Every structure is written in structure tokens, then in C-alpha cells.
């Protein structure tokens, strides 16, 4: 069943598309930051610095 959005259809569709794009960008940004932070932790552990929690960066996955 197709809904009629009336005269504001382009505004509604554009708004939903913009919101979806922002959410997708934020998800990608968080995923990249997670990988970067995990790599930093590995590098610090390899240099001899340990974490207070006692877990290693490889235990995070």
C-alpha cells in the first residue's frame, strides 16, 4: 500500500534521507574510532605499558 505524502513529500523524504545519512556516518565514525583505539592499546601493551583492568586489547573482541 502506497501512502500519499501530499505536497510535502519531497521535504519528508529528504528529511528521512538526511537523518539516515547522518546515522550511517556516525556508525562508521564510531567503528573506525574503535579500531583506532584498539590498535593504540595494542601498541601501548607491546611497549610494556599495562592496563589497570588487567585485560589486554586482544580480549576486547
From TrEMBL:
Coiled-coil ranges from the UniProt annotation: none
Transmembrane helix keyword on record: yes
GO process terms (BP): cytochrome complex assembly; heme transport
Residue stretches spanning the membrane: 12-32
Cellular localization per UniProt: Cell inner membrane
Function of the protein: Required for the export of heme to the periplasm for the biogenesis of c-type cytochromes.
Protein name per Swiss-Prot or TrEMBL: Heme exporter protein D
Organism from which the protein derives: Bradyrhizobium frederickii
Classification lineage: Bacteria, Pseudomonadati, Pseudomonadota, Alphaproteobacteria, Hyphomicrobiales
